[in-house]
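W.,

You were right to be curious about this one. When I first looked at the sequence I had no strong expectations either way, so I just let the prediction run and decided to look at it fresh. Below is the sequence, 357 residues in total, followed by the output.
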Amino acid sequence: MRGQDGLRRLLGAATAVVVVGCPGTASPATAAPGSRPSVVRYDSADLAEYERKWSNIYGPLDGATRSLDGGVLTVSDVPFKTGVDYSVYDHLKYMAVSNRTFPAPRQGSVEFSVDITARTPGATGGHVVHGRYGPPGSATLADPTARLYASPVLEGQQAAVVLNMIDFCTGQLFDWFVSGTRAFPLIERLPSTVTGNTTNPDCPGATEVGLDRAYTQIVREVPITPGVPHRAAIRYRQAGGHASVTYLLDGVVVARVDRVGVPLDRQGVPYTGSYPSLGAGEPLAGRIRSFSMAHGLFSLLDAFPFQYGCTPPDATGPGACDPRYAPWSVSIAPAERAFGQGAIGSFRDFTVRTVGR
């Protein structure tokens, strides 16, 4: 059992965020008339095949170990070791990106799904992260004038096993974060300084994404049954000049977000409050041509916008931040980033289902 019955009981009659249909029911994909579903299985028989299908484009990162047995990929990093106080690089404990991209139909949907079993020892409810406002690397300095930062973080922000759906050309991402006893869907658009989309030859016509368009928001947290596989699925649909994303867990619709590209708080819909946007965003319907699939182990302990517009620290001292973005830069010391938590994730049955054309 993948935990579907348990998830239905845990969700009960609670309403989902921007959800379509009744909570606790699966939402069928809508296809263009006459279209037929296309299904791609993207599992690997062994690590050699896995390495042909996936790339660690951001490097080995935190020294996670991998094994593949009986079609189940297991990635382990306990405890987390990285404490990178710069940009989004502390978030990525392990990340593998598909070498194949999958088209997004102009009229229809594309859905990524996988069975995830997550263990996140050391990640607990109520944990508070502390830091200081300032450029990267400044949290460890004894500066009495620095303004203090403190924020509670969800279990899945401390450590999580993740499925990602990524368009590197627009910077639009959809994610499932699954931890030991909780799960949450996340929607975000990364700035060009992270994706490099405007200089990518595979992204002709890509436009600059700054803080007026970038955002990262946790949609909704739900409890899950620990220690069992959960089917995480993300379905992107566009038709008639509209784009939406639906997040399903064990076949249950947890949330649907309309007007992809526009932050949730700018749409006036409820969400967890992590994190408020700094700009209005922009609708992306019709502009997303394809997605890469990714998976890995993550943490998400920073304050948005994750030191955007700053340079990394080095042997001479802290980095520096563009004055336009400096007010939002929060430095978090390594000991606050890696405090003994870790993650072990098992993945099985990577599937891509496309409906439409």
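Here's what jumped out at me. The chain has one domain: 4-26+37-356. And, maybe more interesting for your project: The domain at 4-26+37-356 is CATH 2.60.120 (Jelly Rolls).

Coffee later to discuss?

I.
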